[in-house]
From TrEMBL, chain A:
Part of the ABC transporter complex HmuTUV involved in hemin import. Responsible for energy coupling to the transport system. One of its GO terms (molecular function) is ATP hydrolysis activity. PROSITE patterns: ABC_TRANSPORTER_2. Residues 4-230 form the ABC transporter domain. Transmembrane segments: none annotated. It comes from the Bacteria. Keywords: ATP-binding, Nucleotide-binding, Translocase, Transport. The keyword Cytoplasm does not apply. Pfam families: ABC_tran. This is Iron complex transport system ATP-binding protein. It comes from Halomonas cerina. The keyword 4Fe-4S does not apply. SMART domains: AAA (SM00382).
Automatic annotation (TrEMBL), chain B:
The chain crosses the membrane at residues 30-49, 84-102, 114-137, 143-163, 175-196, 216-235, 265-289, 304-324, 331-352. Belongs to the binding-protein-dependent transport system permease family. FecCD subfamily. InterPro entries: ABC_BtuC-like (IPR037294), ABC_transptr_permease_BtuC (IPR000522). One of its GO terms (molecular function) is transmembrane transporter activity. GO terms for biological process: siderophore-iron import into cell. Keywords: Cell membrane, Membrane, Transmembrane, Transmembrane helix, Transport. This is Iron complex transport system permease protein.
Length: 249, 359
């Protein structure tokens, strides 16, 4: 099973250091990991650094990967307006680095990714005609169709309605369990993080301030210190932790 | 994806996207075939027209069974008209492909060899030779003007290329640099015309209008050779170039290296445009119109868009060549004037009547 370990990972934009020596225990395939933190904490930079788009010190250690391209990365939505259908844009993600000829199994993979995310009906639509939420699901399909062993998702639910947020996170958790895939997602909704993720890493000003099982990391003290809110965590009737935010401080 | 871990789309009763996609591919192949057929017809009409007129049947016979037509027809069609007619196709395809890829890598619908200053650079190089006999690289008389034009076009492209390597230079900056180059070369052209003799000014003005009449077989082979080399090099990046239209961030996330790809493609399209402009002068708007029509007909999957842009550009210039002969009987109007006069209204009609915005 794949494992990902960050060892004193840093990143810079020019002379400005954005991430400082992030070290984590090994995250294992089958887990969902939340990357938490306020705005400008360095979450997107962390994804870009892990994916190899930024330079910096430290090491990203991946063990147990079997494919040539084990990591897929879904950046935050950029709202492109190319003359491509949804189907073509997902196929495009599948075919990068491959030959120009499309095989039947490539099309089957695209069908499958679209169906997984419940957007098969959008296949014929132009991507320029989609809503922000629909585009975000297409972005997730573009990442999934690559069959990654490690999936990096930068705020995958930011433009989704509540139903689709729950739907997408449920799918990701199921796929992680079924395929032994490691899913790492930046989330702003700590309630979702508590419910759908196994581990959490919390960033603040480019530094890792907490890392571990989500229910141990997300505490009223951390929320007060990092997010500057007073909050409490209670168990609902089904035994799930519920985050109740009282006020900003 | 791991089959069997969840229900397939068919099992869920969802429509099969692959059926739609296959139909889309067939439709695009038919469009490419139709464009090729239209191109062949336009080539035949172009060959048929001139001071000595031939029927279409005679032209087709001369093309496929040259021994069965008269010596006169064979000489006129093969030796005199064919290089010009084929040059229209090659130059049209080259300029259109150059424009298509500039628009793709710069994410700007107005990018073309014309708007990035490459054509203006070529014009300046040609004017230096025509007005003052300045020879940048010694060559046979026939090739002095094209070589000057080519060198200046490449210098312009590499200047833009070099500036684009500086830290903090964005796509918008590159486009603005191109526009600045256009203005600089226009000013230099005006300066040349100010100091040159009247006869030289006429030659410069005629060159900048763009004309296919100086096409010869050797020039055609050079232009065709460059196109034949560049097209596969661009096609090799087909998926990556298509991904570029999703934006740099998305392209990077799919494993594309936008900066490196942008520079490589810029050099290739500068070569295409420089060769085309060097041999026939400044023919504007093909690099703008050809790609837009191809995009409307075929979308932006480069596997169809790239050959589509080449065919559209070739067709437009071939039809332009026909019009340049028939609009005023007995006079061949410079092709650059035709492409501007006919192409731009047609382009505006297409853009305004098209329901969806491409950008």
């Amino acid at each position: 099973m794949v494992t990902l370990t960050l060892d004193r990972l840093s990143a810079r934009y020019g002379r400005r250091r954005i991430l400082s020596e992030i070290t984590t225990p090994g995250f294992q395939g089958g887990q969902v990991v939340a990357v938490l933190g306020p705005n400008a904490a360095g979450k997107s930079t962390l994804f870009r650094r892990i994916f190899g788009l930024l330079d910096g010190g430290g090491t990203v250690r991946i063990k147990g990967a079997t494919g040539e391209r084990p990591v897929a990365y879904m950046p935050q939505d950029t709202g492109a307006n190319a003359v491509l259908t949804v189907y073509e844009s997902v196929l495009l993600a599948r075919m990068q680095g491959r030959r120009l000829n499309v095989q039947a199994d490539d099309l089957a993979e695209v069908d499958h990714a679209l169906a997984e995310l419940g957007i098969a009906h959008l296949g014929e639509r132009d991507i320029g005609d989609l809503s922000g939420g629909q585009r975000q699901l297409v972005g997730a399909a573009q990442a999934l169709v690559q069959n990654p062993e490690i999936l990096l998702l930068d705020e995958p639910t930011s433009a989704l309605d509540l139903h689709r947020q729950i739907h997408l996170l449920s799918i990701l958790r199921r796929l992680a369990r079924e395929r032994g895939m490691l899913v790492i997602a930046a989330l702003h909704d700590l309630g979702h993080a508590l419910r759908f993720t196994d581990q959490a890493m919390v960033l603040e000003n480019g530094q890792l301030v907490a890392c571990g099982p989500t229910d141990e990391v997300v505490t009223p003290e951390l929320l007060h210190r990092v997010y500057r809110v007073t909050a409490r965590i209670e168990s609902c009737s089904k035994g799930r932790p519920q985050l109740i935010v009282e006020e900003a401080v | 994806m791991h089959a069997g871990t969840s229900p397939s789309p068919t099992e869920q009763g969802a429509p099969e996207g692959r059926d739609f996609y296959r139909a889309l591919v067939v439709r695009r192949q038919l469009i490419l075939a139709a464009l090729t057929l239209a191109l062949f017809l336009s080539l035949c009409v172009d060959l048929a027209l001139g001071p000595a007129r031939f029927g279409l049947g005679e032209v087709i016979a001369a093309l496929f069974t040259p021994d069965n037509v008269s010596q006169q027809a064979r000489v006129i069609l093969w030796e005199i008209r064919m290089p010009v007619a084929l040059m229209a196709l090659v130059v049209g395809a080259s300029l259109s492909v150059a424009g298509a890829q500039m628009q793709t890598i710069l994410s700007n619908p107005l990018a073309s060899p014309f708007t990035l200053g490459i054509s203006a650079g070529a014009g300046f190089g040609a004017a230096l030779a025509l007005a003052f006999g300045v020879v940048i690289i010694p060559a046979a008389v026939d090739y002095v003007v094209p070589i000057n034009a080519f060198v200046m076009a490449m210098v312009t492209a590499f200047f833009i290329h070099a500036l684009s390597l500086r830290r903090g230079v964005t796509i918008e900056t590159i486009v603005l640099l191109g526009i600045a180059m256009v203005f600089i070369f226009n000013a230099l052209m005006a300066l040349i015309q100010f100091f040159a003799s009247q006869q030289a000014v006429s030659a410069v003005v005629f060159w900048t209008m763009g004309s296919l009449t100086k096409a010869t077989w050797p020039k055609l082979w050079i232009a065709l050779g460059v196109l034949a080399v560049v097209m596969p090099l661009l096609a090799r990046h087909g998926w990556a170039l298509t991904a570029m239209r999703l934006g740099d961030a998305k392209a990077e996330s799919l494993g594309v290296k936008p900066r490196r790809l942008r520079l490589e493609v810029l050099v290739l399209v500068a070569l295409l445009a420089a060769i085309a402009v060097a041999f026939v002068g400044t023919i504007g708007f093909i690099g703008l119109i050809g790609p837009h029509i191809a995009r409307m007909l075929l979308g932006e999957d480069q596997r169809f868009f790239l050959p589509g842009a080449a065919l559209c550009g070739a067709l437009i210039l071939s039809v332009g060549s026909v019009l340049s002969k028939v609009l005023i009987p007995g006079t061949v109007i410079p092709i650059g004037i035709i492409t501007s006069l006919v192409g731009i209204p047609f382009f505006l009609f297409l853009v305004l009547s098209h329901k969806k915005a491409s950008w």
